[in-house]
């Protein structure tokens, strides 16, 4: 059995979606460059150990994404120029986080007031009485790169509804003189796109995302800001100088 077939069998994801992901990665990494003719279906069949129909389905997905272009009698060609990757470096501190988001273009796609607390982990404080839930999409130019589900203390939200529905909430909170932040916790994990995130980021269902959870506690240990950021995998990087001891 082809070794790749064994690897494919480990996943419950449909085979053609797995194959499309492998081919997409080759294009995005520049292994297959814009204008290149890719391997024939027969060559891909031999390489991956899958049926022709599986390869055809994978190619069709990438055609719909405008990454491949099939030309009758000539073959299939790459029609994608890689975009800048990994331009967003995760912040090292609260000031860095604020700086990274304060000028972002934000589109609010859902608001719900007076909702219950989101689940809080150990050390993430005690919940506010009620929260406003704001779901937004952040853009780099015209491209969405992050979906944010923010639970913001209802009391704080009610003070400046207009601001919080137009601009990133965190910078404004930090400008409020009567709010004192005692802790700002950041947790970074790898996730996958659920239907909502996939739709808003314009990516495939189940594609990897970089997930960043930010929890701000005030001086009463109340979680006034609980945000779950879901970043497009291609924009995100974690860079550190491991010799920097400051």
Main attributes?
246 residues, alpha+beta, Arc Repressor Mutant, subunit A, Chorismate lyase, elongated, transcription, DNA binding, HTH gntR-type domain-containing protein, Chorismate_lyase_/UTRA_dom_sf
What is this structure's SSE topology?
Elements lengths: L2 H7 L5 H14 L12 H8 L3 H13 L3 E4 L3 E4 L9 E2 L4 H8 L3 E11 L10 E2 L3 E10 L2 E11 H6 L1 H4 L4 H7 L5 E12 L2 H7 L6 E11 L3 E11 L3 E2 L9
Parallel strand pairs: 3-11, 5-10
Antiparallel strand pairs: 1-2, 4-6, 6-7, 7-10, 8-9, 9-10
Task: Sum this structure up briefly.
The chain is α+β, with helices and mostly antiparallel strands. It has helices at 3-9, 15-28, 41-48, 52-64, 94-101, 154-159, 161-164, 169-175, 195-201, and strands at residues 68-71, 75-78, 88-89, 105-115, 126-127, 131-140, 143-153, 181-192, 208-218, 222-232, 236-237.
Structural description of this entry:
GO terms for molecular function: DNA binding; DNA-binding transcription factor activity. Residues 13-81 form the HTH gntR-type domain. Keywords: DNA-binding, Transcription, Transcription regulation. One of its GO terms (biological process) is negative regulation of DNA-templated transcription. This is HTH gntR-type domain-containing protein. By secondary structure, this protein is an alpha+beta fold. The chain has two domains: 1-76, Arc Repressor Mutant, subunit A, CATH 1.10.10.10; 86-235, 3-Layer(aba) Sandwich (Chorismate lyase), CATH 3.40.1410.10. The protein has nine helices and eleven strands. The protein has helices at residues 3-9, 15-28, 41-48, 52-64, 94-101, 154-159, 161-164, 169-175, 195-201; strands at residues 68-71, 75-78, 88-89, 105-115, 126-127, 131-140, 143-153, 181-192, 208-218, 222-232, 236-237. The strands form three sheets. Strands 4, 5, 6, 7, 8, 9 and 10 form a seven-stranded mixed β-sheet that branches. A hairpin with a 2-residue loop joins strand 6 (131-140) and strand 7. The longest helix has 14 residues, at 15-28. The protein is elongated. The termini are far apart. The mean pLDDT is 88.
């Amino acid at each position: 059995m082809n070794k790749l077939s064994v690897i494919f069998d480990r996943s419950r994801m449909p085979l053609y979606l797995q194959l499309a992901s492998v081919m997409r990665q080759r294009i995005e990494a520049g292994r297959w460059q814009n204008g290149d003719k890719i391997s024939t279906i027969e060559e891909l069949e031999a390489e991956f150990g899958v049926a022709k129909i599986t390869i055809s389905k994978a190619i069709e997905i990438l055609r719909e994404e405008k990454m491949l272009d099939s030309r009758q009698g000539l073959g299939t060609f790459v029609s994608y120029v890689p975009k800048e990757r990994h331009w967003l470096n995760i912040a090292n501190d609260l000031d860095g986080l604020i700086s990274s988001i304060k000028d972002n273009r934000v589109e609010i796609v859902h608001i719900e007031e007076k909702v219950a607390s989101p689940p809080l982990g150990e050390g993430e404080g005690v919940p506010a009485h009620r929260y406003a839930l704001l779901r937004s999409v952040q853009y780099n130019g015209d491209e969405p790169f992050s979906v944010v589900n923010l639970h913001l203390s209802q009391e704080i939200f009610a003070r400046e509804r207009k601001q919080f529905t137009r601009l990133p909430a965190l910078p404004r909170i930090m400008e409020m003189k009567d709010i004192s932040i005692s802790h700002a916790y950041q947790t970074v994990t790898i996730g996958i796109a659920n239907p909502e995130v996939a739709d808003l980021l314009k990516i495939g269902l189940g594609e990897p995302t970089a997930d960043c959870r930010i929890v701000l506690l005030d001086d009463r240990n109340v979680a006034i800001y609980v945000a779950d950021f879901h970043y497009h995998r291609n924009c995100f990087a974690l860079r550190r100088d491991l010799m920097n001891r400051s």
